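TASK: fixed-backbone design
INPUT:
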């Protein structure tokens, strides 16, 4: 079968987004869109976020920037100057999507708001990814990743068992920005589909605060329908009722995670599990028929003496084994058990390597390749690929301004001297 072009081939995106929306641009670019990252002449702030390759701080060596800006071209432009605004309008005339994360009202203040840009191109889709959206009493508030996670409710569900006033924990890695970017990505895809029918663009107002609130699992439902507040529980879902621990430290000092505490919910896994424990001399009395009723109970219902006994015996058994044996033998019995891995261990995962999930990208700044995660989806007809490494600052200025917009080299030099590019 001949592979077709990537799904978004032919779609051009101008990315004015900073760290809040750069992942959305990456998702679009990796799916084939021509994403042009438009940065201020001094570079986007995301370039100054470490860690840096070789521990050498440099705007072209930020490891987070490298990952979140693959498949993009990069130009510099000061849209605060009239000449920069004029250039951006020329770029917008050839674009399908503009992705931006500036404060509400800023683009309109420099004559680049949706009304102005839609005059340039009526099919243009503008997606504005901001902390609280374009409207409402909080729209002008400042925010950050941790603020968005806190106000969205995500932090309240992450942490250790809510005992003795244990605090909430922030998921690391700009988690809120990734959530907002993924929702923005979905919104762009839907707007592109709608545009095929209407031939009209539109303005997409995406709130990171609201996106985070959409990812709080059952917290809203528990409160809305039962007026129950979920509780933080170590390495397991936040729920209104406490559940038994899911993680155990094995004899070799590693940790394993046993879904639901380790008790299966089907007899086809329960009996092989008990047989395994019994053969090892660790099954105690679990072969008795009365314990089979435990299988049908959900983790929140396992508070009776029989369930607690099974959990205690099972935990003791797991802690007596090496982690790899727990994982492999659990999988043989169709149990959703796994080792808690470090990032370094994942880089050596043979399953990921065979599926092509890990991608090696050449980085000339350090003279070697770096390995990054690829896409978690496969297409049977169209292709997916990381088209290029993240751009150096202003790397494609000549290509975009001179070759594509038709500016002369003298004009380009003049714009540089004026601080426009």
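OUTPUT:
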């Amino acid at each position: 079968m001949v592979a077709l072009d990537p799904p978004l081939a032919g779609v051009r995106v101008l990315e004015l987004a900073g760290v809040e929306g750069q992942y959305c641009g990456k998702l679009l670019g990796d799916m084939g869109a021509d994403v042009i990252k438009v940065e201020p002449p001094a570079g986007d702030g995301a370039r100054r976020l470490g860690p840096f390759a070789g521990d050498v701080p440099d705007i072209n060596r930020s490891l987070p920037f490298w990952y979140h800006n693959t498949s993009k071209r990069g130009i510099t432009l000061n849209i605060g100057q009239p000449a920069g605004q004029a250039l951006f309008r020329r770029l917008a005339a050839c674009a399908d999507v503009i992705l931006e994360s500036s404060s509400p009202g800023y683009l309109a203040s420099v004559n680049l708001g949706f009304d102005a840009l839609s005059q340039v191109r009526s099919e243009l889709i503008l997606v504005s990814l901001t902390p609280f959206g374009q409207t409402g009493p909080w729209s002008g508030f400042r925010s950050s990743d941790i603020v968005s996670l806190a106000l969205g409710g995500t932090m309240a569900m992450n942490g250790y068992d809510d005992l003795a006033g244990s605090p909430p924990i922030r998921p690391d890695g700009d988690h809120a920005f990734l959530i907002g970017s993924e929702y923005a990505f979905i919104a762009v895809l839907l707007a592109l589909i709608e545009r095929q029918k209407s031939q009209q663009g539109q303005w997409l107002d995406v709130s990171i605060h609201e996106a985070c609130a959409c990812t709080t699992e059952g917290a809203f439902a528990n409160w809305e329908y039962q007026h129950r507040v979920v509780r933080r529980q170590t390495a397991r879902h936040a729920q209104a009722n406490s559940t038994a621990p899911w993680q155990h430290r094995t004899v070799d000092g590693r940790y394993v995670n046993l879904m639901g505490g380790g008790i299966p919910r089907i007899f086809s896994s329960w009996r092989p599990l008990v047989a395994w424990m019994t053969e090892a001399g660790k099954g105690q009395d679990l072969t008795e028929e009365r314990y089979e009723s435990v299988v049908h109970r959900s983790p929140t219902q396992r508070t009776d003496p029989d369930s607690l006994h099974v959990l205690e015996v099972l935990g003791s058994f797991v802690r007596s084994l090496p982690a790899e044996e727990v994982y492999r033998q659990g999988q043989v019995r169709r149990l959703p058990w796994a080792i808690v891995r470090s990032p370094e261990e994942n880089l050596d995962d043979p399953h990921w390597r065979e599926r092509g999930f890990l991608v090696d990208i050449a980085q000339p700044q350090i003279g070697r390749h770096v390995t990054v995660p690829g896409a978690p989806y496969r297409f049977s007809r169209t292709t997916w690929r990381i088209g290029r490494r993240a751009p150096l600052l202003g790397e494609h200025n000549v290509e975009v301004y001179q070759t594509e917009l038709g500016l002369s080299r003298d004009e380009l030099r003049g714009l540089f001297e004026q601080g426009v590019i």
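COMMENT: The longest strand covers residues 34-39.
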